[in-house]
Prior knowledge:
Helix 2 (39-52) runs parallel beside helix 11 (263-276), helix 3 packs parallel to helix 4 and helix 4 (102-110) runs parallel beside helix 5. The model is unreliable at 28-36 (pLDDT under 50). The protein starts with a helix and ends with a helix. The chain has helices at residues 2-11, 39-52, 73-90, 102-110, 127-134, 160-177, 197-205, 208-211, 225-231, 240-252, 263-276; strands spanning 18-24, 56-60, 94-98, 115-118, 138-141, 185-188, 218-219, 257-260. The protein has eleven helices and eight strands. It is an alpha/beta fold. The chain is globular. Strands 6-5-4-3-2-1-8-7 form an eight-stranded parallel sheet. The longest helix is centred in the N-terminal third of the chain and has 18 residues, at 73-90. The protein has one domain (2-271): Dihydropteroate synthase-like (TIM Barrel).
Amino acid sequence: MSDLFLHRLDQSKHSLPLVMGILNVTPDSFSDGGQFEQKDALQRLVDNMLAAGADMIDVGGESTRPGAVAVGVQEELDRVMPVVEWLRDETSTMVSVDTTKPAVMQEAARQGVDLINDVHALQAEGAVSVVAESGVPVCLMHHPGSLERMHECPDYVDGVEHEVARFLLARARACEQSGIASHKILLDPGFGFGKTLDDNVRLFREMNVLAEAGYPLLVGVSRKRMIGALTGQEYVQGRVTGSVVAAVLAMMKGARILRVHDVAETVQGLKTAQALW
């Protein structure tokens, strides 16, 4: 189904960005961990997101919150693959899998997912070749350092926007040299990963530096700590309004996919902004 995804992604240049609903099948995700492990609850969430206008569902089986415990390959497969199979069998939605593990990427590709979403930008050994052989589009996200140190904040001497752009464009070139077609590569600035609040704000304001590189941008700021800091909302459930405003601004700055928890509110905000902007 990746052909449909690429077609919809191309259409988003001239219309609203695609809305990617977050489906965390983990016991410890920062926002909704553990809520959706039961099938009935999972089905209700997916049904609600699709009814609200989600274009695709992003399934993740390993939390990337600060301090999260690493998950083994088999455990992640056991969490993610039944959900992917269920989405394929019971819905017509496009499906993304959020993973850093080549074995999970390979199995997800066999199940016909539309996108591999990797916070480690295919840096794991064998990841690039797995994606290249599968032909599935990929999103490369920026975070500094190793997976274990992804939330440590380095000094961005040359400006966070420029260093993020250099990293992601280098990863994109490496992927292209290994056989991944350029039109199947998306970039994610990695808000909240290895960045202070000031870094995140500057990166958001200067997002055009990355948008002008020519690759579609996926932006995920939904309910993140930066939204909490900007709004004074300690609890993630109180960050919905701030997240929607950020999503609208990301659209105005060229984002082609928005990864969100609150689909209905985001879609309403995007439609309103498009009509009145």
